[in-house]
Design goal:
The complex is a heterodimer.
Chain A: E1 5-11, H1 16-22, H2 28-35, E2 37-43, H3 50-59, H4 63-66, E3 72-74, E4 82-84, H5 95-101, E5 106-109, E6 122-125, E7 138-139, H6 142-151, H7 166-188, E8 195-200, H8 202-214, H9 230-246, E9 253-258, E10 262-265, E11 268-271, H10 272-278, E12 306-309, E13 314-318, H11 334-346, E14 359-361, H12 363-366, E15 377-380, E16 386-389, E17 398-399, E18 409-412, E19 414-421, H13 422-426, E20 433-434, E21 438-439, H14 443-450
Parallel strand pairs in A: 1-8, 1-9, 2-20, 2-21, 5-6, 5-8, 11-16
Antiparallel strand pairs in A: 2-19, 3-4, 6-7, 9-19, 10-18, 11-17, 12-13, 13-15, 14-15
Helix pairs in contact in A: 7-8, 7-9, 8-9
Chain B: E1 7-12, H1 16-32, E2 37-41, H2 55-73, E3 78-82, H3 88-98, E4 101-106, H4 115-120, E5 129-131, H5 138-151, H6 165-177
Parallel strand pairs in B: 1-3, 1-4, 2-3, 4-5
Helix pairs in contact in B: 1-5, 2-3
The chains are: A alpha/beta, B alpha/beta.
Chain lengths: 466, 181
């Protein structure tokens, strides 16, 4: 069915097991959409992280095609040239680029990698990669005043996230979400859009801040904590916001609820550079007495074979002759070394000697292209049970402390997908069609198909979900 | 939609198909930037009235297209006209008539162009934009037109500025705090 309008409700890190399996009966608005729509788990990108996942969703291109592999990327093969992948890094046409070309108007709010703002046919509010609220983060510029009026001061993101003051953090998350929905609610009622997409970062911030306390299967579960229901309560709050939003939509609107990835237990960290030092693959000039970031000037490049980046997953970079300034691995030995290192990563055990089931990916195997400077390996420690810790000074390769503060959640391979026609929702049409093969790359072609726009020339990776 | 001024981008050259292709690409780019734009192509409906076979046909057609462009431009629409328009005299008259007018000369290396057009075509003396094979592929040629329009400030710059070093530090701290780095 072709639509006159499409609305995408983006919920960063919204977890399918919580929505579909655990709390659906207590989330009536989500349940209505599911009952009258198509739904399922949405396979994320590798890596399953905000950048590049949302951009992959709105372009239907993989991270290799996009040419960025995470928030921070290498500019070239020198050791210190890095850049943050903001909107300027997105060169492939997004949904709203294509829709603009087809004379369809869009409203885009908070979609990651939309700052610095670029013009479009419509309106755009930049994402959490905006430095702060003083920046020019809207298109047109005058929209900033409008949304500040609506929200009584728009909030781009939660600041001071790493805190043990959970009450304060929870309040900040609710404030941010409330303001975003106020703006969305106001703008969605205007007749000037064909396509509307917003991304709420609240679920991600909430999961990272409260997962251990709230999740019964997590070792840090605190059943007696005041915050034990923080995540469930927030999901119920989102459900109420969604309910309100649904009342404002025309019958000829298709609504999608999507997330870029899910959430899962994070139980510890693998100190990737400590491990590489232990393996004799990374040499530092001075090993610190305390935990410190691994800095370029402390790496003995002449004696270093590879190094790693921290984050929810690891990126491993090889020091290759005639590629890096002080390269060590010859190009002839590159593939053999890569296989050898992959096997070593896969054999990492916990302190009890049990293999933690680490997954290792080779960019050239998983992407259609590898533009920009790809990592030589991408590593999910313990298949994401463990994060990657880049700092050194732990004197051990495994830790249950985090170098960036408390965090008990990691990203998970699958996000959520729900798509319904508002006419079906209002008529309570029983559809409830569960699909098992949904990919983040399917979202863009599905939306364009709703507008009957031929997208063949864009070489999208995904398929139309029907 | 931002407030913009109306003006005309006039693509002229012996190859109607090359003019058309560039005009379409230019239209797409301007639309993507949220600008009000219309494409008027002498090869396309509804302005294609008959087969253009002689110089006077082309000149007469150019005059009609110019009138459409004038009406659109006064309503703050950017009008892209794709027309062989072989006569300098006619093109100059249109320039005077329209005022805000950018002449783009699409210099074609195509050897298969109808000789009757090649013979009568008068090369622009001072086009605002000259596109020739050394400018690269059509995408690069289209961007040359866009850049000219940006430089004379008839359209806004397409991209925001990247982070300052202070902002980059701010972003790095935020991403570290959020656990992304």
């Amino acid at each position: 069915m072709n639509s006159n309008k499409v609305l995408i409700v983006g919920l960063d890190c919204f977890a399918p097991q919580l929505l579909f399996d655990r709390w659906l009966d207590e989330l009536p608005a989500f349940k209505r959409l599911i009952s009258s729509g198509i739904w399922g788990k949405l396979e994320s990108t590798i890596p399953c992280i905000t950048v590049p996942a949302w951009s992959s969703m709105v372009t239907s291109k993989d991270p290799g095609q996009l040419g960025f592999y995470g928030f921070r990327n290498r500019k070239d093969y020198s050791y210190d040239a890095l850049y943050f992948a903001n909107s300027l890094a997105v060169k492939e046409p997004t949904l709203w680029n294509i829709l603009s070309r087809n004379r369809k108007s869009s409203v885009v709010i908070g979609v990651p990698q939309t700052y610095p703002v670029k013009p479009l046919r419509g309106k755009l509010v930049g994402c959490f990669l905006t430095p702060d609220e003083n920046a020019e983060f809207t298109y047109p510029e005058t929209l900033k005043h409008e949304i500040n009026e609506i929200a009584d001061g728009y909030k781009i993101d939660v600041k001071g996230f790493r805190t043990d003051d959970k009450a304060w953090l929870l309040e900040q998350i609710y404030q941010m979400t409330e303001k975003r929905f106020k703006v969305v609610s106001e703008m969605v009622q205007k007749p000037d859009w064909d396509f509307f997409m917003f991304v709420e970062m609240g679920p991600d911030r909430l999961h990272h801040g409260f997962w251990g306390i709230c999740e019964p299967s997590h070792p840090n579960y605190e059943p007696d904590s005041f915050f034990v229901n923080a995540i469930k309560d927030y999901y119920k709050y989102l459900d109420k916001q969604l309910e309100q939003l649904l009342t404002k939509l025309d019958d000829d609107t298709t609504i999608l609820v999507v997330s870029d990835h899910g959430a899962r237990n994070l139980i510890g960290g693998i100190c990737v550079n400590e491990w590489l030092i232990e393996q004799g693959l990374l040499a530092v000039k001075e090993y610190p007495d305390s935990i410190q970031k691994l800095t370029n000037d402390n790496i003995d490049w002449e004696n270093t074979t590879c190094w790693g980046e921290g984050g929810y997953y690891a990126r491993i970079f090889f020091n290759v002759k005639d590629r890096e300034p002080s390269g060590k691995i010859s190009k002839e030995n590159y593939q053999a070394f890569r296989q050898e290192l992959k096997a070593k990563f896969e054999s990492i055990t916990d302190k009890d000697g049990k293999n933690i089931n680490t997954k290792v990916f080779t960019p050239q195997d998983i992407y259609s292209e590898t533009n920009g400077v790809p990592p030589d390996l991408i590593v999910y420690f313990g298949d994401l049970d463990y994060r990657s810790i880049g700092s050194i000074g732990y004197k051990d390769y495994i830790t249950y402390e985090n170098d960036t503060g408390p965090d008990d959640a990691n990203h998970d391979h699958y996000g959520v997908f729900v798509m319904s026609e508002m006419s079906d929702v209002k008529n309570q049409k029983a559809i409830n069609k569960k699909l098992d093969d949904l990919s983040i790359y399917d979202v863009a072609p599905t939306v364009l198909d709703k507008f009957n726009i031929n997208f063949e020339k864009y070489n999208m990776k995904g398929k139309v979900i029907k | 939609m931002i407030i913009q001024k109306g003006f005309t981008v006039w693509l002229t050259g012996i190859s109607a198909s090359e003019n058309s292709e560039l005009a379409e690409m230019l239209e797409g780019e301007l639309l993507e930037r949220g600008l009000k734009v219309e494409l008027v192509d002498e090869n396309n409906e509804p302005v294609k009235s008959k087969v253009l076979s002689c110089c006077s046909d082309y000149n007469k057609n150019a005059g009609a297209l110019a009138e459409i462009a004038r009406l659109l431009a006064r309503n703050e629409v950017i009008t892209i006209v794709s027309a062989v328009s072989p006569s300098i005299t006619i093109r100059n008259a249109i320039r005077t008539q329209l005022g805000d007018f950018i002449e783009v000369y699409v210099k074609s290396a195509d050897q298969n162009i109808d000789k009757s057009i090649v013979e009568v075509y008068e090369v622009p003396e001072k086009p605002e934009v000259l596109l020739e094979s050394s400018d690269g592929d059509n995408d690069m040629k289209m961007k040359k037109i866009i850049r000219t329009l940006e430089l004379i400030k008839w359209i806004p710059e397409g991209f925001g500025m990247d982070y300052s070093s202070e902002e980059e530090t701010q972003i790095q701290e935020r991403l570290e705090s959020l656990g992304y780095l």
